[in-house]
Amino acid sequence: MPNFKLVEESAKKIINMEVRGASRIARFAAETLKEFAKTVEKDFDENMRKASEILMNTRPTAVSLFNAINYVMMYKGENDEEKKADAIRRAEEFIRWVDTAKQKIGEIGAKRIKDGWTILTHCNSSTALMVIKTAFRQGKNIEVIATESRPRYQGHLTVKELAGEGIPTTLIVDSAVRYFMKDVDCVIVGADTITVNGALINKIGTSQIALCARESRVPFMVCAETYKFSPATLFGELVVIEERDAREVAPEEILNLGVKVRNPAFDVTPREYIDLIVTEIGAIPPEMAYVIIRERLGYGLEMGELKVSAKHFD
Ligand SMILES: O=C(COP(=O)(O)O)[C@H](O)[C@H](O)COP(=O)(O)O
């Protein structure tokens, strides 16, 4: 029997943010599809399609979820048995992509961090933290300023992780970024999505930090695996910004006043504010986003026609 309960439970974990952060969500979706595929005995295409839809309708902004599902769903085979084996193989391949990319980004990004620097980070990006931790492990004497990242306080996860590594870390409220920017040598953040024009979609508040960094001439570095680049934006689609429950922001007492409360989870940082995007295949300017979408993900504009041919990870 196809285990849809497993898929529903995974979807719930993504929605309630028990599993969060773009790369963890992507990895978890691939793992879930892999485990689900093992339980399918017949009508493989139909069952996998249903499971994919359930996972897809969890959080709308991070393209990594789409890319993960899409990667697994490009399985091939003459019959259900072959399709199942290929889907499982592709899921495992995607999971390896997630793990190896983070390591490589850590190594590449760490080269850009100088001894003695103070780095500001926002939210909780496992990829941005990999860069910071790699630099620290190389013996660089660095400090981190981490924003608390309201309303979900992912900054608390960040400071726990950094303190666990022994990295000197200061926690600040989100609105104190400009106050502290004079002490910052580099901003390093993660990504939920990179669009074809090189814009970054990341945790709400990222664009204000980028603006502030630009004002102070502080370099702004984004850490993004290539599966965080969005092919759909090449075809003219806009990235949907998730708007979460008002109760995450305001208590009942305020909500009862009938006041409108808005809670967008992400915002857009235009490419002009980004100095560098560190991917697992190199540190690139945001202007190279189309090249990544074409060469790495296999979606391109060919002879005036839209051509879709998603590639295998190597
Ligand atoms: O904005 C967030 C998390 O938002 P949320 O907590 O709402 O999921 C992170 O910066 C990116 O997802 C990148 O994370 P990673 O580098 O770990 O993929």
From TrEMBL:
Q: What is its EC number?
A: 5.3.1.29
Q: Which reaction does it catalyse?
A: alpha-D-ribose 1,5-bisphosphate = D-ribulose 1,5-bisphosphate
Q: Which InterPro entries match?
A: IF-2B-related, IF_2B-like_C, Initiation_fac_2B_a/b/d, M1Pi_N, NagB/RpiA_transferase-like, R15Pi
Instruction: List, alphabetically, the Gene3D superfamilies matched.
Output: translation initiation factor eif-2b, domain 1, Translation initiation factor eif-2b, domain 2
Keyword Oxidoreductase carried by entry: no
Catalytic-site annotation from UniProt: 123, 192
What SUPFAM superfamilies does the record tag this protein with?
NagB/RpiA/CoA transferase-like (SSF100950)
Q: Which domain of life is it from?
A: Archaea
Which keywords annotate this record?
A: Carbohydrate metabolism, Initiation factor, Isomerase, Protein biosynthesis
Entry GO MF terms? ribose 1,5-bisphosphate isomerase activity; S-methyl-5-thioribose-1-phosphate isomerase activity; translation initiation factor activity
Task: Give the UniProt record's GO annotations in the biological process aspect.
Answer: L-methionine salvage from methylthioadenosine; pentose catabolic process
Q: Which residues bind substrate?
A: 59, 202-203, 228
**What else is on record for this protein?**
Reaction proceeds via a cis-phosphoenolate intermediate.
Function summary: Catalyzes the isomerization of ribose 1,5-bisphosphate (R15P) to ribulose 1,5-bisphosphate (RuBP), the CO(2) acceptor and substrate for RubisCO. Functions in an archaeal AMP degradation pathway, together with AMP phosphorylase and RubisCO.
Stated family: Belongs to the eIF-2B alpha/beta/delta subunits family. R15P isomerase subfamily.
Protein name, as recorded: Ribose 1,5-bisphosphate isomerase
According to its UniProt entry, this protein's organism is Archaeoglobus profundus (strain DSM 5631 / JCM 9629 / NBRC 100127 / Av18)
